[in-house]
Amino acid sequence: MSTLTLDPEKISSVKNNASAIADDIQKFINKHSSISVERSLLRLYGVDGATKDGTPYVNRIVEIAKKDLAQYGITKLLAAATLKTKRDIQTTAELLATKEIPINVIKELSSAELEVKEREFATIAIEKLRKSKEKKERKKRDLPMPQAPWKYLIVATGNIYEDVLQAQSAVLGGADIVAVIRTTAQSLLDYIPFGATTEGFGGTYATQENFKIMRAALDEIAKKQKRYIQLVNYASGLCMSEITACAAIEDLDMLLNDSMYGILFRDINMQRTFIDQYFSRLICAKAGIIINTGEDNYLTTADAIDNAHTVTASQLINEALAIRAGLPEEQMGLGHAFEINPTIKNGFLYEIAHAQLARQLFPRAPLKYMPPTKYKSTDVFQSHVQDTLFNMASVMTDQVVHLLGMHTEAIHTPLMQDRYNSLGSANYCFNTAASLSSEIEYKKGGIIETRANLVLDKTVSFLREVKLQGLMNAIGEGKFADIKRTQTGGKGLDGVFVKGENYTNPVLKILEAQNE
Amino acid sequence: MSKQLIKPYGDTKGDGRIQLSFTLPVENSPKAVKAAEVYLQGLNLENIAVCHSKKIAEGFTYFVAYASGKHEIDYSKIQVVTAETKILNFYEINDLIVEKLNKKITVVGATIGDDAHTVGIDAIMNMKGYNMDYGLERYPQMEAYNLGAQLPPEELLKHALEKKADAILVSQTVTQKKSHIHNFSAFINLVDAEGLRDNFVIIAGGPRVSHELAIELGYDGGFGAGTLPSQVASFIVTTLCKKLGKEI
Ligand code: B12
């Protein structure tokens, strides 16, 4: 790989500052849990299903347990209940949800009994995560993984069965990764809808059943195509960690899982988001799920030249927080994007500078590279050319998770034929320029190297400021994406609580211990 | 008015050349190519050349074709509804407010419903503006309140009443399943139901909005892709003047 000359001292400065910023947040996280973390635990223990009115059992139970949650945690409460009923987890959960048995019977049991039961639950959860990783690894051994950049395509019909058709078509055209976009505003739902769904706006509901349907469909076509196809969904918003639990259970390969996206772009409370992202990433680490982060979104509200350093800074913070959750670099799909105004002279060179900087700062990370969107033209032919340049930038800088741009981006969500056209360009570029990155050398002190160093310099001072202020205050000032959020503002703060003295989360404990 | 008959132009006047691409739900085969041609005949096209066909999914074929349109239209008969406003600049707008309206103008704006896209309404309202054209917040004679996205219609109206707004700006970007139409209508119906329609100049905007559509939905005006804040400011001010019977 050809490299740009970057000052190693500046690199260690940004890494150290990001690390200090993450430590500060982690201290806060460690004292707290949230209703969504507790619901994730129930899902990992095997609680499934919903009441007649469609409320998932996990929501009903956590709601009923609300006043005891901080003191004990849902695990201990469920352990006590199963010891009392002497029934299995699901049956006990249903009895709890329908209030046929009381939620808190802890006092009637010895702490030794409870502890054994909790450990048993935790083992069930951990085994699920471990097996999911194993299964994916086995599939990847049986069917070869394609060479990077992996072509990532989105389906978003709103109907999971329609999505399956679109996905199969995308795979036929060369897609390596299929992402099912979620319906508008799902991130604001504080529950995961139950079952297969056929109605959504701008996307399809993320439900466990929908995950299962798409996984099966992709596995089937993967066998025919003789290459493994990765499945992605979105774990952000109020159900971040819970969606992660479902995704792990259904063997998804990647999840959108950003530590700040929900705060900035969905106005989810920041305390809630930081707590949830941590548990969510612990699960990802164990289940072998690659996380994708959402820095590309910054450039839809802020300018890509002026704010390139905020993308880099956010990648570094996402990395630092991911390290604390035990994610290896190979599972960090840090995000960035090709969003410079196309009328800027030498814009393509700046794009290469940004992409190559990311490549060198995170050498082993499966970087997630987003196509141009904001400046896409309604002239689809012009847009197709923009995508082609993006494809070239990607293959030149060894990007890994490559989202395909759509020439109809400024018009509608993609038609089947739009994906076909888009894949045509990517297939062509990736093949015709397959070895380009190892053939070129960057000019010393040239436009590209100078630009990369400028962004790095700006990142150095930006992160220094954020460290002094603390991340939460920095977000409050609008330092990221020009969007301001307060510590107590946004949705979901009422679901956050301080862990009481007897609170337990044995899954978290084991995962943390394994990370050490 | 004399007739002015026109049809598409390729490289010779009157050749009617049109380029098309589309997908049919059948496997690629000579029969599929023929079907594509027959389909285009049904669209009143002739000289059809289906030049490309490719399987893009199980049971789906993609085509590229060229053809000639048969019919001509009379351009002199075409009518279109556009916002007929004199486009004024930043200074002219502020002066006009001082001279004719004699008070600062209050504008509230938001993206309503589930739609979370704010960049469009921000471009119109925020200080910075769009394409080197200042946003409404920058106008000394305007009080502009940008209320962000995902606002329920009721909230937008509540704010408009509280702030004694002269104009309300409503933005919609997502058009899937006609959700923009649904949301725009929900807002206007609410204002009508409260008997408040005459209190405000109400403007719709978004990439798929036209003045014509906005009028049809009961708005005073509509603005689409590429709109500059000064165009919107001009429209607000001239419409307010008109409402008050003031000449410009
Ligand atoms: C940026 C962006 C986002 C950002 C938004 C960030 C933000 N805070 O706004 C993010 C990443 C969050 C996002 C999310 C989604 N997006 Co989006 N997004 C875009 C994108 C790339 C650019 C839009 C934009 O900012 N344009 C720039 C502004 C300046 O232009 P504009 O909005 O047209 O505004 C101008 C005029 O229209 C006018 N105007 C606009 N509003 C108003 C109001 C008034 C009163 C007036 C007078 C004028 C006016 O003035 C402005 C200046 O000229 C477009 C694709 C594209 N290139 O258009 C997709 C796009 C709009 N998104 C789309 C979709 C589907 C979504 C999601 C639903 C995806 C999903 N399933 O999650 C979510 C939406 C979630 C939700 N609840 O709404 C689709 C919409 C398809 C459709 N036609 O329905 C598009 C077209 C992409 C696509 N091809 O699929 N998106």
**Quick one: biggest sheet of chain B?**
5 strands, parallel
Gyration radius of chain B, in Å: 24 Å
Question: Would you report the number of β strands of chain A?
Answer: 11
Give the C-alpha Rg of chain A. Answer: 23 Å
Summarize model confidence as the mean pLDDT of chain A: 95
Number of E-state strands of chain B: 10
* Strand portion of chain B: 15-25%
Strand content of chain A: 5-15%
- Report low-confidence residues of chain B grouped into runs of 5 or more: none
Ends of chain B: how far apart?
31 Å
Give a verbal description of the structure.
Chain A has 2 domains: 32-124, no CATH class; 147-450, TIM Barrel (Alpha-Beta Barrel), CATH 3.20.20.440. Chain A starts with 7 loop residues before the first helix and ends with a helix. In chain A, helix 5 (74-85) crosses helix 6, helix 7 crosses helix 21 (506-515) and helix 10 (240-249) packs parallel to helix 12 (270-287). With 516 residues, chain A is of the alpha/beta class. In chain A, the strands form 2 sheets. A 9-stranded parallel beta sheet of chain A has the order 7-6-5-4-3-2-10-9-8. Helix content of chain A is 54%, strand content 7%. Chain A is globular, with a radius of gyration of 23 Å. With 248 residues, chain B is of the alpha/beta class. Chain B has 7 helices and 10 strands. Chain B has helices at 30-42, 90-101, 119-125, 153-162, 179-193, 211-216, 229-243; strands at 5-6, 17-24, 45-57, 60-69, 73-74, 105-111, 142-146, 167-171, 201-205, 221-223. The model of chain B has no long low-confidence stretch (mean pLDDT 94). The A-B interface holds A 158, 165, 168-169, 172-173, 184-185, 201-202, 265-266, 300-301, 374, 378, 410, 412-413, 415-417, 420 and B 21-23, 54-58, 60, 62, 114-116, 118-119, 122, 150, 174-177, 179, 207, 225. The structure holds cobalamin. Cobalamin sits between chains B (109, 114-121, 123-124, 130, 169-171, 173-176, 203, 205-207, 223-227, 232) and A (156, 181-182, 184-185, 202-203, 265, 297, 300-301, 373-374, 376, 409-410, 412-413).
